[in-house]
Design a protein that fits this description.
two-stranded parallel ribbon; five-stranded antiparallel beta sheet; alpha+beta
Length: about 190
């Protein structure tokens, strides 16, 4: 089932997400629905707060980057209760966008290497290192679990210039190609 994407301005996007355990109701169904929602919306990652659930859960599939980044081929993960343990290296800039903030893309600086610990969909523990594009995708989605959006990481002048567009998104004054939920209860016009 395709879930509506939580839009900029919705309070769920600003909460620090809670850990879950194996007894979380209908977890596999939620994971499947998040993947379906992500693919339908042309995303490469989706965090549970983006579907209005304040829990520590991410789904990722970097395959769309495989042409430019061969190691992205088949990079598909479910991350439950993830924590970035370490970020390292000299920050680099990459143009990011977000399903919760449609039609806005900005250059964001992040460190190129991370170490992350998480449980997969089978509740097996992982302690892994990632770099470059895979690290970037994880960092972006991980920020959602911490109540941080990519526009929080751009300089204040750029954010000021985007203020009107961000207000329009929060009010539902946008046209998107997927379902969204807004803080004021409006529905976006579909493309």
């Amino acid at each position: 089932m395709i879930l509506p994407i939580t839009a900029y301005g919705h309070p769920t996007l600003r909460k620090v997400a809670s850990e879950i355990d194996k007894s979380y109701p209908n977890l596999q169904e939620l994971i499947d629905n998040m993947y379906e929602t992500m693919y339908t919306s042309s995303g490469v990652g989706l965090a549970a707060p983006q579907v209005n659930r304040s829990i520590r859960l991410l789904v990722l599939d970097a395959t769309p980057f495989a042409e430019e980044v061969p190691e992205a081929e088949g990079f598909k993960r479910v991350m439950i209760n993830p924590y970035i343990i370490e970020e390292s290296g000299e920050e680099w800039t990459f143009n990011e966008g977000c399903l919760s903030i449609p039609d806005i893309r900005e250059d964001v600086s992040r460190k190129p290497k991370i170490r992350i610990q998480y449980y997969d969909g089978n509740w097996e523990f992982h302690d892994e290192k990632y770099d470059d594009v895979m690290a970037r995708i994880i960092q972006h989605e991980y920020d959602h679990l911490e109540g941080i959006l990519f526009v929080d990481r751009i300089n204040s002048m750029r954010k000021m210039l985007l203020k009107r567009k961000l207000q329009d998104i929060s009010k539902g004054n946008i046209t998107v190609g997927y379902k969204m939920i807004f803080p004021v209860g409006k529905k976006a016009k579909r493309k």
